[in-house]
Known about the structure:
Blueprint: E1 3-6, E2 11-15, E3 19-26, E4 31-39, H1 66-70, E5 90-93, E6 104-111, E7 128-137, E8 142-151, E9 156-165, E10 171-184, E11 188-194, E12 202-207, E13 211-217, E14 229-234, E15 244-250, E16 255-261, E17 266-272, E18 280-282, E19 287-289, E20 292-298, H2 301-316, E21 330-332, H3 334-337, H4 343-355, E22 360-363, H5 391-401, E23 405-410, E24 414-415, H6 420-424, E25 444-445, H7 451-466, E26 472-475, H8 497-515, E27 520-523, H9 533-536, E28 541-543, H10 550-561, E29 569-570, E30 573-574, H11 587-595, E31 600-602, H12 610-632, E32 634-639, H13 641-644, E33 647-653, E34 659-666, E35 676-678, E36 688-695, E37 700-703, E38 709-711, H14 712-717, E39 720-722, E40 730-738
Parallel strand pairs: 21-22, 21-31, 22-23, 23-26, 26-27, 27-28, 28-29, 30-31
Antiparallel strand pairs: 1-2, 2-3, 3-4, 5-10, 6-7, 7-8, 8-9, 9-19, 9-20, 10-17, 10-18, 11-12, 11-14, 13-16, 14-15, 15-20, 16-17, 24-25, 32-33, 33-34, 34-40, 35-39, 36-37, 36-38, 36-40
Helix pairs in contact: 7-8, 10-11, 11-12
Amino acid sequence: xxIAYHKKENVFKIDTEHTxxxxxxxxxxxxxxxxxxxGRIADHDLEYLLRTEENPFVPSKNARDKLLFMDAFxxxxxxxxxxxxxxxxxxxxxxxxxxxxxxxxVSHEILQEKPQLKGLxxxxxxxxxxxKILTEDKVVGVxxxxxxxxxxxSDALIRSVRIINRGKKPVYLEKVxxxxxxxxxxxxxxxxxxxxxxxxxxxxxxPVNYGFQxxxxxxxxxxHQHHPFLAxxxxxxxxxxxxxxxxxFVYSGNxxxxxxxxxxxxxxxxxxxxxxxxxxxxxxxEDFQAPEAVLTYTAEGLGGMSRVYHDLYRQHLIRxxxxxxxxxxxxxxxxxxxxxFDEKKLLAIAKEAAKSGIEMLVMDDGWFGSRNDDRxxxxxxxxxxxxxxxxLKKLVDGVNxxxxxxxxxxxxxxxxxxxxxxxxxxxxxxxxxxRRAVMGRDQYVLDLSRKEIRDxxxxxxxxxxxxxxxxxxxxxxxxxxxxxxxxxxPADRQGELSHRYVLAVYELQERLIRRYPKLLLExxxxxxxxxxxxxxxYSPQIWCSDDTDAVERLMIQEGTALVYPLSAMxxxxxxxxxxxxxxxxxxxxxGYVALAGTFGYELxxxxxxxxxxxxxxxxxxxxxxxHNLVADGDYYRIASYGENHSYDCYMTVKKDRSxxxxxxxxxxxxxxxxxxxxxxxxxxxxxxxxxxxFNMETGKEEAYxxxxxxxxxxxxxxxxxxxxxWGDFQGMLLHIVxx
Length: 739
Ligand code: DGJ
C-alpha cells in the first residue's frame, strides 16, 4: 500500500516507487508535522525527526515555552497568529476581526482513489490512493482538510487543502496555500522560471539564502513574468544527478511560491493562491477548495524531475483525445496577415499550404465585428461579412474542399470599449463603479464571475462553432486584470473576484470541451502568459510565446520543457526577419526547433522565398516521421544554449529505448574548433544503435559520419562526435535507432 498509517508511531507514510513522504502527529491534542520527504525509505519509525524529544519539547510538557515550539515545529499547514513566524499557509479572519488560528488533528481517512475537485482542474486516474487528514480550530470553528494523493505509476505527490466553516458565523479566508513543507537546508539552489512578454519561462538558479525568496503573480493570470513553479536543487545537482524537489501549481490565476530560510537553517517551501487580491467569505457550513500543487522529488537531477512531470501530465492531467493523436500541422495567418485579410487571401494561403502537406488553416484575430486593428470589437462575436464575403461557412467549406481542416481564434474573456457589446452593457467590464478602468491593449476584461456574461460568451462562441465545420479553437487572453470590482458582488465578496474569474474561465472551457468533444483547443495568452497546468486540463497544447525566433525559442522551450511535455508546447515556423526581433535564421533550423513542440507554420506561404516554400514538404515529412518520438518520448536535456551561449542539444527517447531523436543547434559558430563531443542520455546501455541524419533538403534520412553501430553505454559514457557545421544558427537532427 503506498499510503499507510503507523498507529504506534502516529506516522503517515506515503510512498511512490522512488520517494517517501512522512507526516507525524505530535502531542495531545496533536499537531500535524512534516517528518520527511525524499528518497524511498523502509517502514521504520522516524518520528524522532520531528525533534519533539529535545528542547523546547511539546506544549503539554513545556507549556511555558509553547512559543518556542510553535516557531520551530515543521507544520504541514502553518497557520497565522500563534507563534509560527516563518510564513503561514492559512489565515482566517473572524467576524471580530482577529486572525488567530491553531489547527489540531481530528481524524484521517485513506481513500482508494484520486477524487476530482469541483470546478477546478485536477489530476485524475485509476490506481491511486489519497490520504485526507482533518484538522480543526475549535475556537473559530474552522476545519482544514489536508489531502495527499499518489498514482501507482508516478513519483509525484499531489497536495491540496479544503477549508470548512463549522462555526456559527461567517469567516473570511485571507490566505489559503495548497502546499507547505519544512526541511533542513543541506545547501539548495532555488530554480524558477521568469520572463516577460515574448521572453517567457527562462530558467534562473540562485542559492537559497536567509529570509524569504519567492515569486508571484497578482496579474489575474499565471503570467509571462513568473511561473507557478519552483524547484530546490541540491548544490551541484545537474541534468543527470542530484536531489531536486519540485512544486508546480495546477492553477491559472494569481499565485505565490516561496522559500523561507530561518534561524535554525531550516527551509519552508510553500505554494498557493496569492494572498493579494484574495479574500473569500465562508458562510457557516460552506467550504473552500484550494487548487492542487504537484510535488516531486528525485535524486536523478533536473532531467529526472522533468520526466516525472511530463509523464504525470500526459497520463493524469491532459484529458483531450488529441493527447494521443497526431495534431494536424496548422498554418496560422497572424504573422502572415495580421488584421489585413479577406477570404481570398486566406484561401490563397490554404491552397498553397495544402499543396505542401499542411493540414489545417487557422484564422486568427480580426474576423469579427468591425475589427481591423486591436482597438475594437472584442465581444462582438459576429462574422464580419465585409471581410469574409459569403460568410464563414463558405470560407470553411472552401478550406475543407482543399482537404484541410479549419480553426478559429477567439478572445472570449474580453470587451473593447469600442464594441456594440460595451455600448449595450458598460457594466459588463471589470471595473470599480465610478472609476474609469485602466486600459490594456485598448480593451477591458469581462466580469466572468457573472453567470449572464458567461452565458453570453458561451452562446456566441458556440453559435460560431455551430455555423461551420470548425475543428480547432485558439483561446486567447491579451491583458491582465486591474480595477478589480464587480457590479454584482456585495462589498464583503469583492475580494473573491480574482479567484471567481479563474473558476469562470474553467467553467467556460469545460462547457466548451463537453459540447465539442472532438475540438482541438489551444490556449494562449498574449503568447505564453497562461501556460500552466490548470490550462492543460482543458487543452492539450498551449501557445508557448509570441516570440517565434528559433534562437530565442531554444531558451523559452527549454524552460517550458523543464516541467511540460513537448506535446503541449505550441511551436511554429515563422518568416524572417523574425517579427519579434529581426533575426534571420535558416528555414531548416526554424523547422528543427518547432519540431520540439506541436509544429505548424505562422507565415504567408504565398510570399515566402521559393527555397523556403520548397522545404515545407520536407519539414512536413520530418514531422510525420518523428512526431511520436517527440510527443510520447522521454525528454533529455544534453546542453543548454541559455547556459553555454554557444549551442543547444536535447533528445527524446522512445519509452522502450529502441529509438531516439537528437536535436543539435549550433547557435554561434567558432573558428578553429574540433568536432564537439556530446554524451547521449536515456539509451539502453546494452543495445547497439545506428545513427542517421535527417536531411532537410531531401526530406530523407542519410548516413551520418559515424557509420558503425555503437553500444548504448559507449554513446552515453564516451559520447558521439557532432559533425562540424558552417555558420551561425545551424541545426541538425540525428535519428538513433537500435539495431
Ligand atoms: C496574441 C497571440 O499570442 C497571437 O498569437 C495572436 O493570436 C494575437 N494575440 C492576436 O491578437
